[in-house]
Design a protein that fits this description.
This protein has 16 helices and seven strands. By secondary structure, it is α/β, with parallel strands linked by helices. Among the domains are: 114 residues, Alpha-Beta Complex (Conserved hypothetical protein from pyrococcus furiosus pfu- 392566-001, ParB domain); 70 residues, no CATH class; 102 residues, no CATH class. The strands form two sheets. It has a five-stranded mixed sheet. A two-stranded antiparallel sheet has the order 6-7.
Length: 412
């Protein structure tokens, strides 16, 4: 038995000969225009997208909405709007397409019709929207662009500002990876502040993890605050060319006992010569015998001592947090026994929480808000508070309790 040949969309559409509604005359104001008589110039939409469904619809039912054409007065027509329908008919090898024909339109009127047609039928991508606004501002000015797009000056300004972004930021928009101009604008600020931090955010986005507006803004604040403090440190260092000696990571008990009393008016004793210290390098290959090694005073050793002391100071907050947690648990238990209004219970817990947290936020400045946002994101990701606690638990090093070393790859 011979198989029946399949009928392609192109063959089916050509049975009707035109892209009009099959077996029905065109409505008043419309005309069937030959596809070969239509000229197409650059449109607002840069990508037509997948035309498969549209071609199937046209093949089955014809073009239900006419395209818009400008009569150029020479027997040819310029496409104003409807490029997807036009291109679908071309690919289906039709001969004509239903159209509404206009005459004597200004370039601004044509542009406004294109914008309205695209937004009414299918929203433009954020990239096409921005590029279209930029073209119109350059061609006609901001005021006329507001009329064309029927938008406010601030809306126009935000999109025309895209042209000032770095290529790496614009690519996130043009590639369709992020269409939120607020996020991208903040990313541009982040790139201006730190290319390394921007690169980390960019990598996240390219792997499908688009950060929130809050997250990017917080990162910008954090980086700027960090750079400001680094600049202040450099200024102070420049004003004081003689560096202060690095504080010792630990102070021997005997030394602390021999320290002069604060109220003692007697002249301070002369500073003793640096004492020799013992370290791994002080032992010979055979081991056992130690050699005296002068106390190192290079910058790396000073930095290591300062870091160790800062880690010890950070570890102290584990005690503060544990004590505060027990106190708050006691309060929560007492509040549960109250018979009053629920808001009274909430107020007591809230006030206790603020009293515990606010003093910690104040020294952090703007970074404190960023820390709160990060904590909120961690909790939303279903990270339990006790798990967060364990992640930052202090550890013991050389008999001292110190904060953990920053995990490799961790960035705020």
């Amino acid at each position: 038995m011979t198989a029946k040949p399949k009928l392609s969309l192109t063959s089916f559409a050509k049975l009707g000969g035109t892209g009009g509604t099959k077996d029905q005359p065109l409505p008043a104001g419309q005309a069937a225009v030959g596809l070969s008589l239509i000229d197409v110039k650059k449109q607002v939409r840069s990508k037509l997208g997948d035309l498969t469904e549209l071609k199937a619809s046209i093949a089955a039912n014809g073009v239900d909405t006419p395209i818009l054409l400008l009569d150029q007065g020479n027997g040819r027509f310029l496409l104003i709007a409807g490029e997807r329908r036009f291109q679908s008919c071309v690919e289906l090898e039709l001969s004509t397409i239903p159209a509404r024909i206009f005459k004597d339109l200004t370039p601004q009127q044509i542009r406004a019709m294109q914008v309205r047609e695209n937004n009414d039928r299918e929203n433009l991508s954020a990239f096409d929207e921005a590029m279209g606004v930029i073209e119109d501002v350059e061609a006609y000015g901001v005021a006329e662009a507001c009329v064309i797009w029927n938008r406010s000056e601030s809306w126009i300004s935000k999109r025309s500002g895209v042209q000032k972004w770095a290529p790496a930021v614009r690519e996130l928009l043009s590639d369709g990876l992020c269409g939120d101009l607020e996020v991208l604008g903040s990313l541009q600020q982040l790139r201006n502040a730190s290319t390394d931090e921007f690169a980390r955010m960019e990598n996240r986005i390219r792997h499908g993890d688009v950060p929130s507006r809050h997250e990017v803004r917080d990162k910008v604040v954090q980086v700027k605050e960090w750079k400001r403090k680094q600049a202040e440190k450099q200024e102070k260092a420049a004003e004081s060319p003689t560096p202060a000696p690095a504080p010792a990571s630990r102070k021997p008990k005997a030394e602390a006992e021999d320290a002069p009393d604060a109220d003692d008016d007697s002249p301070a004793p002369a500073a003793p010569a640096p004492k020799p210290v013992l370290g791994p390098a002080a032992y010979g290959a055979a081991g056992g015998q130690a050699e005296e090694v002068a106390a190192p005073d290079d910058k790396e050793d000073q930095a290591a001592a300062q870091l160790f002391q800062a880690r010890a100071l950070a570890a102290e907050f584990a005690k503060i947090g544990a004590a505060g947690g027990k106190q708050l648990a006691s309060l929560a238990e007492a509040v549960d026994q109250l018979d009053g209004d629920m808001s009274d219970s909430d107020w007591l817990l809230w006030s206790a929480f603020v009293q515990a947290v606010a003093p910690l936020l104040q020294p952090l400045g703007k970074r404190g808000g960023a820390f709160l946002h990060k904590l909120e994101r961690e909790l939303k990701a279903k990270t339990a508070p006790e798990d967060l606690w364990r992640q930052v638990q202090p550890v013991e090093e050389d008999g001292d309790l110190v904060s953990q070393v920053r995990p490799e790859g961790w960035h705020f």
